[in-house]
Amino acid sequence: MAAKDFYQVLGVSDSASQGEIKKAYRRLAKQHHPDANPDNAAAADRFKEISEAHSVLSDTEKRKQYDQMRRLGAFDGGPRRSGAGPRPAGAPGDVGAEGFDFGDFGGLGDIFSSIFGRGGRQSETRGESLEAVVEVPFRVAALGGKITVTIPVTETCPTCTGSGGAPGATWSTCPECNGRGTISFGQGGFAVNRPCPQCRGRGRIPSQPCPTCRGAGDVRTEKRVAITVPPATETGSRIRLRGQGQSGQPGSAPGDLIIAFQVQPDRFFRREGLDIVCEVPLNVAQATLGTRLRVRTLDGKKVMLRIPPGTQPGRKFRLKGQGLEKSGRRGDQLVGVSVSVPDELTAEQQDLMKKFAESAGMSY
Question: Which of 19, 53, 127, 293 is most buried by a 10 A CB count?
């Protein structure tokens, strides 16, 4: 059986754009995510396979190297390197009794070994990066600040410490891989090692699986992460937190946490570039005769704004320097006005309004 092609795993062509790859990954990850498929080992394995394919194809440099290896026949039983045969176990560049030497491919060997695991085991595999969409209050996004979010992660099972066996369980050699922890995949002159699906690469199986993780060795949990929101953050802005993602295999570094911000709307303010826009109501007398208003700014202070006589509905006034600051530039606050008209007038008020309209030459 040939090793699986990452493009086939995601169901996209090898000419797929990054957007198409991302869309396919999100659709498949949602379908096979462990949270949506509890106690389903097959779905968990499929999710890991999807994540592995995405981690390579979504990285421009990794994808370039992967495509080169693919053209060399890595997934179709292509020709073995000229004059070469499998190396003896323990020989330089050895990757396992039935492995393939990736060292002869130069820089490509590093990426391909990271994909398939050196020696068939993935102890050197870095943890997966996690992505999360976080809602941020409007003022925090505008001015910057700190928020704390809860992220679902997979961590080593505290009951079995990752072994997958119940406390006190006895262990036996895995019959599928004969204790190697790997299964060799390939055809023709090419073969690669992958972790054994029965023992999950451990080389042995317990007499009784761990009751907490059901033999997986890891459990889903949540962790709280403090995030610094940069000033002038807008919806769609992203930040990367190094080492805050999924835990890797023992001895390897964790992945990253990628945060995409979703800014919550505010009842009073809205944003236009670096400018902050708001609207204040005026009554007919204020709009006609003029007035002074105290207008709230983004930082919570109030600024006195002069409204001149004869102000028309929709007119905007500018408060210099009261907007957002980014890259040395600062916006303003634009204050629009609306004019409210009384719903009802008394007979006396109507008479006065008619006299006013007539004296001003207004028709009614």
Answer: 53
> Residue 180 gets which letter from DSSP?
S
Q: Is CATH 2.60.260.20 what the domain over 125-164+213-265 is classified as, yes or no?
A: yes
Kindly tell me the sign of the dihedral angle through the C-alpha atoms of 52, 58, 61, 67: positive
Element at 141 (helix H, strand E): helix 138-143
Chain mean position to CA 118 = 28
**Helix crossing, 60-71 with 107-116: angle to 10°?**
90
Name every residue whose Cβ is closer than 8 Å to that of residue 91 and which is 6 or more positions away in sequence.
none
Alpha-carbon gap, residue 175 to 156, rounded angstroms:
25
pLDDT category of residue 359 using cuts at 50, 70 and 90: confident
The string of pLDDT tens digits covering residues 23-74 is 999 899 888 887 787 777 777 778 888 888 888 898 888 888 888 777 765 5
Task: Tell which CATH classification among 2.60.260.20, 1.10.357.10, 3.30.450.20, 3.50.50.60 matches the domain 270-359.
Answer: 2.60.260.20
Q: What is the pLDDT of residues 239-276, one digit of tens each?
A: 999 888 877 665 677 888 899 999 999 999 999 999 99
Question: What pLDDT band is residue 3 in, cutting at 50, 70 and 90?
Answer: low
Domain boundaries, the chain: 125-164+213-265, 270-359
Is 9:200 a contact under the CB 8 Å cutoff? Answer: no
In the sheet with 257-263, reading across from the earlier edge strand, the strands are 130-136, 257-263, 238-241
